[in-house]
TrEMBL record:
Coiled coil: none annotated. Gene3D superfamilies: 3.40.630.30. This is N-acetyltransferase domain-containing protein. The lineage of its organism: Bacteria, Pseudomonadati, Pseudomonadota, Gammaproteobacteria, Alteromonadales. It comes from Pseudoalteromonas luteoviolacea NCIMB 1942. InterPro entries: Acyl_CoA_acyltransferase, GNAT_dom, N-acetyltransferase. PANTHER family: GNAT FAMILY, PUTATIVE (AFU_ORTHOLOGUE AFUA_3G00765)-RELATED-RELATED. Residues 8-173 form the N-acetyltransferase domain.
Length: 176
């Protein structure tokens, strides 16, 4: 999947993204609500997984790079996976480089991403999960038109302890 927005180009992660992915993922601020900061080996594995042929099966990840259209600067990543293909449900995720936070890039990329996912894969529902103390993430989900479905207890293991998370979703009929 590839698409452009007013300011961004979104395309599959590729080998040339390795340094940018590593720099972003090794940053503790970037990984705080996702998992431990990445090693170079983790980043290589991510790129290897991302460059495999994507199949429409449950839990295989589609990983995309977000880049500035004018400078080609790495902004962050988007992720999609079917969680229940038979029920037409998929999950999105996102990670932005700390240098590019609070500039509207996540909203711009994720809103177009969700539209493309509904259209391309005939989804009925897109979900997203975040740690409850990741306020920026759940606020983004709300700006995307997603609704909070509930709180999942001890659903995430981050920095050596379990954390509750929020589950958000948007239905095809709610997409504006």
């Amino acid at each position: 999947m590839r698409f452009e927005t007013a300011r961004l180009t979104v395309r599959p992660l590729q080998q040339s993204d390795l340094t940018d992915v590593y720099q972003s993922r090794k940053n503790p601020d970037t990984s705080k609500y996702i998992g431990d900061p990445a090693t170079i080996e983790d980043a290589k594995l991510c790129i290897k997984e991302a460059t495999l042929p994507w199949q429409v099966i449950d839990h295989q990840k589609m990983m995309l790079a977000i880049r500035c259209k004018t400078t080609n600067q790495f902004i962050g990543e988007l992720l999609f996976k079917f969680t229940q293909k038979q029920c037409h449900i998929g999950e999105i995720g996102y990670r932005l480089s700390p240098l590019h936070l609070s500039q509207g890039y996540a909203l711009e990329a994720a809103s177009m991403f969700i539209s493309h996912l509904f259209e391309q894969f005939e989804l009925n529902k897109v979900v997203a999960v975040c740690a409850i103390n990741n306020i920026a993430s759940w606020r983004l989900m709300e700006k995307l038109g997603m609704r909070r479905e509930g709180e999942l207890r001890d659903n995430m293991y981050l920095q050596g302890s379990y954390h509750d998370s929020f589950l958000y979703s948007i239905l095809r009929r709610e997409l504006q």
